[in-house]
Amino acid sequence: MNMVPGLFNYWVAVLLMMAGFYVVIAQPNLVKKVVGLTLFQASVFIFYISIGKVSGAHAPIFIEGVTLYSDPLPHVLILTAIVVGLATTAVGLALVVRIQEAYGSVEEDDIEAKDREQNDEGDGGGP
Amino acid sequence: MIDIVLLGFLLLTAIAAVCLRDLFAVVMLFGIYSFLAAGLFMVLDAVDVAFTEAAVGAGITTVLMLATLRLTGRFERSPRPLRLLPLLVVAMTGAALIYGTLDAPLLGDVQAPAQQHVAPRYIERTMAEVGTPNMVTAVLASYRGYDTLGETVVIFTAGLAVLLLLGITEVPAIRPGRRVIDDQVVLHVIVKALIPFILLFGAYVQFHGDYGAGGGFQAGVIVATGLVLYDLVFGDGDAQLVVPPAWLPRIAAFGVLVYGAVGLLSLLQGKALLDYSALAEIPLSGQHLGIMLVELGVGITVFAVVLAIFYAFSGRRRQS
To answer: Can you tell me the ipTM of this complex?
Structure first.
């Protein structure tokens, strides 16, 4: 049963990812979808950092006499990904704000209904 | 042990965020989720990452989401009935991913493939080749300087995209006596005293990143946080007097240019792009100089982009 604590981090990362995934595909509110995406994103970060962990090792900052460090590479990838993630989340939220201004709602159903209405009007005016 | 507790809390927070319909509560839960994740990164030896997640996730992202809620409304409409298809897709994807982890190396295994290939080289040679005790900074700014240049450009582009979508409305400064939360004396006094320390801490994180946890990404966010706090407490107009919004795209571009110029400089010296040993007589001092300049470029860009995004969201008025 040595496997369970050894893989626990990965399993929780998968469950968190699925929670975010569910929000993105099943819930109609666009703000909530963006929150779901960021939950998903953070679970990937947890997965990467778990891969880089070495038990009994030191954080990767050089200290005289210490030879065992955790892997610095995932740390670099995730550090930059967090800040890039902030910038891209902001773009997503800006799009949501514009959708609110154009459609008066951020609920998927309303937006689709409005689109359909406009299409029908367009057909009615045609030959 | 503590990591298992943190993971359990993370799971609880995520499930609560999925179920709740009050989006304000969802956003606050997201802040808690980020903070827990930062704690977990700390336990897993990733000090730089923990630092970034605490500043970005629990700080700026939460503020941006709240600013969006102000424009779109606080409550989600009553939920659709639970539909089977999405649930099935999610369950199957999750099962497949968990099946995939079953023969993965266990947590903390020194023999894991990830620990065999590139990492040992970085760990063994950083002090001799780059000379910065913080290996994360060495890999970020020197070994993988190309990546970081690309990421800085992505951040700059995302900032421009937000400005194109929302624009920044300049708000006339509101003079004392007319502020919205002027009665909050305690808040005003404390924030006024805190801001110089936040900015000083940002500068420390910026320039001490070679030796300890920190660097341009974190410093940029921390300095921006200081100004965001000032804006939240003293109003849009007063904050825009300190850093006018019209400057921000230029400041952001300047940071990217500093980074690119350092790369070109080493190219002109006959070395590869972003090979800092070309910058000085002694290769190690060249590396120090290069990393410092590049991190400064990153810090400037991140600061300007984060602040510009915040101004764009906070300046937008709700249209009915």
So the answer is: 0.90
